[in-house]
Write a structure and sequence with these properties.
five-stranded parallel beta sheet; three-stranded antiparallel beta sheet; alpha/beta
């Protein structure tokens, strides 16, 4: 039987959550890396210190109940909440805090972010409680039986029909009000955590472009590509390359930045407005490529499906990406006619 050793993973600079104590067992024996670029060094260090094997989640499927932990590089969209929901200890190398549609499952006890190699330390094994040792505060008697409580349980008094009807109506109304109130809280929380920061990010990028004049420099590079159909096709092919798309997908940073740049240049007249629709599809073929193995896992796909499905989806983006640009280009005719 393999002997596994526990490690402690703490949050890094700008990180959140933890510290997590990872203790692989014979049942939970895999350290899974879902980072889009093979096995991440953080996953390798956890595996070497614990003695558990490290697995690339893009090439091999591992059931959640077999994961000692999972290493991700999510900036706060889906993966950071999927694995905590599945009950898997999640180590995020990106300094992210609870956000996204599954943020309610992200807790300090199952999630830690901003992790670097120096945040992973071996932990001395804790002594296990022997079967004949009772926890503190529970002392069995000499006969080995649990003593009966000294105070007898009072008899249950059942309410009459009118009282039960009023109680039923009150509980039903309370449940409806509570559901709408919780929905409102989650909506406001999503706006504060996701929508407003994104708006601030876009505003900051636009301000930097306009103030520094970097837009003129970028326009000389982007305009020849974003201003022609051939250039947009080239952008979509590069963004959809199978060895790049999983790395460009997390947080959709590339799509956000390039999208803002193209939008600014369209507003300044450097790029024709009819290129806005095909440009939208040209900068987005990599979106979701980092989520492919996670989606297949949630769909309970077989290992053979994972091995074939991941490269199939990544390579298919090289076809569907440029094709989407062509379709968008055709539908853009007449959209901005005077």
């Amino acid at each position: 039987m393999t002997t596994y050793r526990p490690v402690q993973v703490s949050k890094g600079a700008g990180g959140w959550g933890g510290p997590l104590v990872i203790r692989p067992t014979e049942k939970k024996r895999f350290v899974v890396s879902v980072t889009g670029g093979g096995i991440h060094p953080v996953a390798e260090r956890i595996a070497s210190l614990t003695g558990a094997p490290a697995v690339d989640g893009f090439s091999k499927k591992v059931e959640p109940e077999e994961m000692a932990c999972v290493v991700i590089d999510c900036g706060g969209t889906a993966r950071c909440g999927v694995y905590p929901k599945l009950g898997v200890l999640t180590v995020d190398i990106t300094p992210a805090s609870p956000s996204g549609p599954l943020m309610q499952y992200i807790k300090e006890a199952n999630f830690v972010s901003g992790v670097r190699l120096e945040n992973i330390q071996p932990l001395e094994a804790e002594p296990q409680l022997l079967p004949d040792e009772a926890p503190a505060g529970e002392v069995p008697d000499s006969t080995g039986e649990t003593p009966e409580p000294s105070n007898p349980v009072p008899p249950v008094v059942r309410p009459n029909k009118v009282t039960r009807l009023i109680e039923f109506i009150g509980r039903g109304m309370g449940k409806v009000v509570g559901t709408f109130y919780q929905a409102g809280r989650e909506t406001i929380d999503q706006v504060l955590r996701n929508i407003l920061p994104f708006m601030a990010f876009v505003s900051t990028i636009i301000g930097i472009i306009l103030y520094t004049g970097i837009g003129n420099v970028i326009a000389e590079v982007v305009s020849p590509l974003a201003g022609t159909l051939v250039g947009l096709l080239l952008i979509s092919v590069v963004a959809a390359l199978p060895f790049l798309s999983p790395l460009l997908g997390p947080g959709a940073v590339v799509a956000q930045v390039v999208g803002v740049l193209v939008g600014v240049e369209i507003g300044r007249g450097n790029i024709p407005p009819q290129m806005a629709l095909p440009a939208l599809f040209a900068i987005n073929p990599q979106v979701g490529c980092d989520f492919v193995p996670v989606g297949l896992t949630l769909g309970e796909a077989k290992p053979e499906t994972i091995e074939i499905g991941v490269p199939a989806v990544l390579f298919s983006r090289m076809v569907t990406g440029p094709l989407a640009v062509l379709i968008a280009y055709l539908f853009s005719f007449g959209l901005y006619a005077d």
